[in-house]
TrEMBL record:
InterPro entries found in the cross-reference section: Aminotransferase_I/II_large, PyrdxlP-dep_Trfase, PyrdxlP-dep_Trfase_major, PyrdxlP-dep_Trfase_small, TyrNic_aminoTrfase
Family: Belongs to the class-I pyridoxal-phosphate-dependent aminotransferase family.
Organism from which the protein derives: Perkinsus olseni
Alphabetical keyword list: Aminotransferase, Pyridoxal phosphate, Transferase
GO biological process: L-tyrosine catabolic process
The keyword Transferase is assigned to this record: yes
Name of the protein described by the UniProt record: Aminotransferase class I/classII large domain-containing protein
Every Aminotransferase class I/classII large domain range: 42-409
Chain positions with N6-(pyridoxal phosphate)lysine modification: 257
Cofactor(s) this protein cannot do without: pyridoxal 5'-phosphate
Entry annotated with the keyword Iron: no
GO MF annotation, one: L-tyrosine-2-oxoglutarate transaminase activity
Length: 420
């Protein structure tokens, strides 16, 4: 090869890298317009509750726990790859949710770099990259689920959520997926409370889902419960493990959202081994943990205090703020012609449907691009989550930002209302 051709040589990326794409980035790239320069830009797009400083970590952890642990010099080294025993025990204790089954032990818990890594590890432990194994995913859903599977060469199939029933699982759709994939289906991923939907399913609905999984051979459930205990409509959050007698559950959790510290990157996967069938999966998770050696030692050391010593008033205050913001959005936008708001129950999001027969836009991407360009309000199109003609509002900004953004959305819809 000549020196000239060497200069133009291109080294191709790996298949894993080529398979790894995030649909949010692809769609957001279509929104690259200059926001109205006469208005302050209000981002309602990023699910980070810390952006404005109105949601903060529990003060006792900041003032005492982290300070004392740092000064002790006890958390400067490598923890066990699965995490510190104290952190894993605290997670196991919190996951003791079924009165008729033994509680999880520390061996059932693996600490991870955020819930995202916990989901990745759960998928990797269950499914092979052989072109046959399939994970069943919700639609709409957090797009990372699909990205993780695609990156690993694992097939996916989608079951529907029903927007007309506050985004409950369409049981018929899930049954069809289970029937169609048969033994190739290695697990069902379920997310409650939901990003992006803001839903919180009833205990009865979760029982129906678990019963269906039992009917199809006790297929394992990956339960993404990162928004556990973040309901604000009065309905408690029901953990999947609390209603399962035979279906094995891999419960995903973390401190990012409940304790308002997404940048700390501390999560976990906790096994609920119904029927003693997860021995290989448990060992697989332990082995996978050695690839990264878990989350940062110092931040991991705060987990026991966060889970056991955070006052109830802290969570109640956060949920009160989320409820007030969600009600403001409902009150302001509910009567706007062409918008259909699905009332949120939990988490940090509201999904809003767009009637393109009333509002003169092509679709949700066009709506979001024009809204940013004309009113400087940034929302994510529903197609980021595989739900066309919806958009997602993040409800964590301060009230004055929410009020101003909703006022601009009203004005935008009025400006773009189709003439009769």
């Amino acid at each position: 090869m000549s020196a000239a051709s060497e200069l133009h040589r291109v080294i191709p990326k790996s298949l894993v890298a080529a398979r790894t794409t995030n649909p949010i980035r692809r769609i957001v790239d279509q929104l690259k317009v200059k926001p109205n320069p006469n208005l302050e830009t209000i981002p309602l797009s990023i699910g980070d509750p810390t952006v404005y400083g109105n949601f903060r970590a529990p003060q006792h952890v900041i003032d005492n726990v982290l300070r004392d642990n740092l000064r002790s010099f006890a958390y400067n080294g490598y923890p066990h790859s699965c995490g510190y025993a104290a952190a894993r025990q605290a997670v196991a204790d919190e996951n003791s949710v079924h009165p008729n089954h033994p509680p999880p032990t520390t061996d059932d818990v693996v600490m991870t770099c955020g819930a995202s890594q916990a989901i990745d590890m759960a998928i990797a432990a269950l499914a092979n990259s052989n072109g046959e194994d399939t994970i069943l995913l919700p639609q709409p859903a957090f797009p990372l689920y699909n990205t993780l599977c695609s990156s690993r060469g694992i097939n996916v199939d989608f079951y529907k959520l029903r927007s007309d029933r506050k985004f409950e699982v369409d049981i018929t759709s899930l049954q069809h997926c289970l029937e169609a994939n048969g033994s190739k289906a290695r697990g069902v991923l379920l997310n409650n409370p939901s990003n992006p939907c803001g839903s919180n399913w009833t205990r009865e609905h979760i029982q129906d889902i678990v019963a269906l999984c039992k009917e199809y051979g006790d297929i394992p459930i990956i339960a993404d419960e990162i928004y556990h205990d973040m309901s604000f409509d009065g309905l408690p959050v029901t953990p999947f493990a609390s209603v399962s007698d035979t279906v094995p559950i891999l419960s995903i959790g973390g401190i990012a959202k409940r304790f308002m510290v997404p940048g700390w990157r501390v999560g976990w996967v906790c096994l609920h081994d119904r029927g003693d069938v997860l021995g290989d999966i448990r060992q697989g998770l332990h082995d996978l943990s050695t690839l990264t050696l878990g989350p940062a030692s110092l931040l991991q050391s705060a987990v026991p205090s966060l889970l056991k010593e955070t006052p109830t008033s802290y969570h109640n205050n956060n949920k009160k703020m989320l409820l007030e913001n969600s009600r403001m959005i409902m009150d302001t936008l509910m009567d706007v012609p062409g918008l259909n708001i699905v009332e949120p129950q939990a988490a940090m999001y509201v999904m809003v449907g767009i009637d393109t027969g009333i509002i003169d836009v092509e679709d949700d991407i066009n709506f979001s691009r024009l809204l940013l360009e004309e009113q400087a309000v940034f929302v994510l199109p529903g197609q980021c989550f595989q739900l066309k003609d919806f958009f997602r509002i993040v409800i964590t900004p301060p009230k004055d930002k929410i009020a101003e953004a909703c006022s601009r959305i009203r004005q935008f819809c009025q400006n773009h209302r189709r003439s009769r």
